[in-house]
Design goal:
Keywords: Glycosyltransferase, Transferase. Its EC number is 2.4.1.187. One of its GO terms (molecular function) is N-acetylglucosaminyldiphosphoundecaprenol N-acetyl-beta-D-mannosaminyltransferase activity. Pfam families: Glyco_tran_WecG. This protein has about 270 residues and is α/β, with parallel strands linked by helices. The protein has a domain of about 180 residues. Strands 4-3-8-7-5-6 form a six-stranded parallel sheet, with helices on both faces. Helix 1 crosses helix 5 and helix 11 runs antiparallel to helix 12. The longest helix is centred in the C-terminal third of the chain and has 23 residues. About 40% of the residues are buried.
């Protein structure tokens, strides 16, 4: 089990952690019904915080920020002299959390995506993990919601009896939701990215060799070029350039300006 605390990657505090430790921390918080905000960041997620000082503030208040992408793991190892053997990939973390939840009798709520996707995800995962309890599902409205709708959603999730909640709204909306709702819901909120689509069987994952080589971004770009080209073609080179500057001591790695959000964005 590896849990070495948070380390700065371009001013974003990322946990140097492995799957075993991440799962243990989330399940323990769920059993104790403690609030917890969790995400797994690839290059896009890190760069969203780099480019937006308000979002950087949010990310740096998360309880657990896992190194989702291989380039983020490589950055942790290179910048901080670590030897993390693997990343903590969001879709794989989702599966391991479901396995642990089934074993520990921790109930799960699913929020985000479409109702069809959530139902298929729930069917697939309850078939895969005997004893997994899905306390409820709620599809995204794909817009900002009113304070009244927020309160209704909070009540629905809490009244379901769920002990943790997977949130799939896309980056950065899901992280904004987890930041804003952490204390209201009082349970682990796990931003799962494309895990709903992958495990519902509605989106193919990259071959393992591409994942291990840090080329998952290229595979996804070929599948969704219209949606993802800006994310990868523009952000990946910027990420590498900034990492080189941090490695050479030409860029400050901590203490960057942050701006506390003044209003809730209420994505739902």
């Amino acid at each position: 089990m590896i849990d070495l605390g948070k380390k700065s990657v371009l001013g974003i505090e990322v946990n140097a952690i492995d799957y075993e430790a991440a799962v243990a921390r989330v399940i323990e918080s769920a059993k104790r019904r403690q609030p917890m905000s969790v995400t797994a960041l690839a290059v896009h997620g890190v760069m969203t915080g780099v480019q937006d000082k308000t979002h950087r503030y949010r990310l740096n208040r998360f309880d657990l920020v896992c190194p989702d992408g291989q380039p983020v793991r490589w950055a942790l190892n290179s910048l901080h002299g670590l030897s993390l053997p693997d990343r903590v990939y969001g879709p794989e973390l989702t599966l391991r959390l479901c396995a642990a939840a089934a074993k520990e009798d921790v109930s799960v709520f699913l929020f985000g995506a479409t109702e069809e996707m959530l139902k298929q995800f729930a069917d697939n995962l309850t078939e895969k993990f005997d004893g997994l309890r899905i306390a409820g599902i709620r599809a995204s409205r794909f817009r900002q919601i009113s304070p009244e709708e927020r309160d209704d959603l909070v009540n629905e999730i809490r009244d379901s009896g769920a002990q943790m909640c997977f949130v799939g709204l896309g980056c950065p909306r899901q992280e904004i939701f987890a930041y804003e709702m952490r204390d209201r819901l009082g349970m682990p909120l796990i931003a799962v990215g494309a895990a709903f689509a992958f495990h519902a069987g509605m989106l193919d994952q990259a071959p393992r060799w591409m994942q291990d080589s840090g080329l998952e971004w290229f595979y996804r770009l070929t599948k969704e070029p219209g949606r993802l080209w800006r994310r990868y073609v523009l952000l990946n080179p910027a990420y590498l350039s900034l990492l080189a500057m941090q490695k050479l001591g030409l860029r400050r790695e901590s203490g960057l300006e942050e701006s506390k959000p003044t209003d809730e964005l209420l994505f739902g």
